[in-house]
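pinned: reference chain
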Amino acid sequence: MREGVLMFDPDSERMDVRFDVEDYYGGLHCGERMEVYLKGKWQPSRIEMNFKGNWYLVGIDTDNLVGLRVRI
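pinned: its structure tokens
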């Protein structure tokens, strides 16, 4: 598994994971599984998009995914 942070890529209109300055996952797709670091522990989740076109993480209560520490 690799650790990085979530970011939005406006060119692809997808969430992505940034591992380093020029090192990216390449765009996330609905259903992709990952672990999110919250409250001092890793929590399993997957990324989805709602009917309004907003990205969210299943089981993670937040309105802003950008900057969340993840491993995939």
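why pinned: The longest strand covers residues 41-49. The chain has a mean pLDDT of 97.
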